[in-house]
Design goal:
Spore Coat Polysaccharide Biosynthesis Protein SpsA, Chain A, seven-stranded mixed beta sheet, 7 helices
Length: about 230
């Protein structure tokens, strides 16, 4: 098996819009950049991955990946996560990789060993390995054959769409729930869940941890001033 990871990354300023009532635009952008950097560092620690591909139109990505062994695809169309994911799949297929993990940037607790287990599951006979979000509605990660017929369809309700597509195409789909990939950040409740998980861990997601601490300090200062 030749496994690769693909990270579709939207512009940081446009990320996490559903947190608009909780965080300002600057805080959301800083959080998105920090989570991306932490996920990228986790992927670099994997002994199994043979390539990491980032698909993005975000200018800051170039600074974050500088000096790293990362392939960057410029997302010139910026038509969403699913289109970016398909561009990444096409690239890794052309490079000869036979398995690809589509990984979100908003799961900063990612453990390399848990991602590797998804590839093991794929090697054991699953055509599609799907990781649902903690609400069992969305999709936090997919492992697929990049040259195969399966097409990612992210967004609300994607778990069901992905399962139905696999069934329609006659593909064997395995549902896995590795703890480090179940918490993504879309809502205020997700942000709280991430904070609790970080409190229970040590040394994980340091950049995300730092940004969240800064956000809390800023909130505290505003409360005192009020």
């Amino acid at each position: 098996m030749r496994p690769a990871a693909i990270l579709p990354v939207k512009r940081f300023e446009a990320a996490k819009q559903r947190l608009g009532e909780t965080l300002g635009s600057g805080s959301r952008a800083a959080l998105a950049a920090a989570m991306f950097a932490d996920v990228l560092s986790a992927l670099e620690r994997s002994r199994m991955l043979q390539a990491v591909v980032v698909v993005s139109g975000e200018p800051e990505v170039a600074d974050i990946v500088a000096g790293r062994d990362v392939i960057v695809i410029d997302d010139t169309t910026e038509k969403g996560q699913s289109n970016a994911a398909r561009a990444g799949l096409a690239r890794v297929a052309a490079m000869g990789f036979d398995r690809a993990a589509l990984v979100p940037i908003d799961c900063p607790l990612l453990e390399p060993a848990e991602l590797e287990e998804l590839f093991v599951r794929a090697a054991a006979g699953a055509d599609v390995v799907l990781v649902p979000d903690r609400h069992d509605v969305g999709t936090n990660a997919l492992v697929v054959d990049p040259s195969g017929p399966f097409e990612p369809q992210f967004g609300p309700g994607s778990r069901q769409r992905h399962v139905e597509q696999a069934e329609h195409r006659g593909l064997r789909c395995a549902i896995e729930r590795p703890p480090s990939l179940t918490i993504d950040v879309d809502t205020e409740d997700d942000l709280v869940a991430l904070g609790i998980a970080l409190e229970r861990s040590h040394g994980r997601a340091p950049r995300t941890r730092g940004v969240l601490r800064q956000i809390e300090r800023t909130r505290g200062s505003r409360s005192v001033a009020a």
